[in-house]
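Co-fold these.
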Amino acid sequence: MIYQLYYWPGIQGRGEFVRLALEEGAAQYVDYALLPSEQGGGVAPMERLLEDPSVQYPPFAPPFLKAGRRLIGQTANILLFLGGRLNLAPKDPAGKLWAHQLQLTVTDFVVEIHDTHHPLGGGLYYEQQKPAARRRAQEFRAERLPKFLGYFERVLQANPARKGWMVGARLSYVDLSMAQIVAGLRFAFPRASRKALDACPGLCALHDTVFARPRIRRYVASGRRLDFNNEGIFRHYPELDG
Amino acid sequence: MIYQLYYWPGIQGRGEFVRLALEEGAAQYVDYALLPSEQGGGVAPMERLLEDPSVQYPPFAPPFLKAGRRLIGQTANILLFLGGRLNLAPKDPAGKLWAHQLQLTVTDFVVEIHDTHHPLGGGLYYEQQKPAARRRAQEFRAERLPKFLGYFERVLQANPARKGWMVGARLSYVDLSMAQIVAGLRFAFPRASRKALDACPGLCALHDTVFARPRIRRYVASGRRLDFNNEGIFRHYPELDG
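Predicted complex below.
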């Protein structure tokens, strides 16, 4: 099976949570965001698929994954699907549901991270909503950032397997996503995240462990992992970092 | 099995998506939000459970469901769990994942609906963020509302079973949630939603069908379904309705 991943070109964004799973799971996949337009890359073919009336299960938005004849949308749903196939999730139903529950909490966190720079909506540029972004980011740094990270740290520390993973005794897609969250927060909010992560030694160690995995290292070294930039979810605007 | 539902008292909120499934599925459950505090209702016992270090799989926030010894959080995850047990979801893996994908898109929509009145965050009252709310609601009415509803209408119309349901040939939890979305939008945005729903005859019919189901009618008539109010997700502020 060669998976096909569709996501906006030029950013890590939500697609990166899927990419990390595909890479760690040693899946074969084509990442259309990275292809030149002659080979099917770019936005137009992706939007055609989103609008194609012959698609039985149309996704609402990227990222989406083509797996054989199936088209699967929603980041956490894609990971739920891939988790079993790539051996990146617990096998028992309760563990599977728990991993997914954590991933949905990551999803919520990602929305709040995004909304620090776009509180008034995606139709305006950041530059058109700076005062609102400042206000939203203030509450994010003071309340939401430590609350989410504290929760995830608590989950990691309470994992009875005590191997440093979020769920059970083996790496899961949740660990990959948490490491990505830590990396993104350090890019976007170097000051605020340093303070918040000081209280989260487990998450910091998890970040290092994930990015030291051989397949993830090869992926990063390949140049295929796009750099963080101010077009994505994690954006570095010093004025939002307090 | 007697399920135990924990959610904020006084509002329908995200808890209502779970309640509609429990009601239509004829599940036995205790809704702690409705109990007096002497019987375990109110916020304090719920917050104790959220903080309880002996809980192996702690939820991040309400709603959460206790099912035997299991504690399950995240609205869409609770519905994923209940779907199979209450016969409110397709049985085949592809249909199950598709129903869940739609529910996650409902979740995204709910966040955007909520953020129309709280674009700057939950730490400020609506009255403290009215200009920002007006700006966010403007984009919501013009872009996001028709986009989400148009997508769901398209999904319903493209369902090959052609029975008027979102997924397959039988009612699922997605139908219950869609009906709740229509009801909530009509309360919060009577003007804007009338216009947007004019283009969505399938969703309007689905709303009527769901609220005419015998068990849902009994639930509404029982008085246990709280009224919409301006403390919940769907709030009616005429100035946000254009």
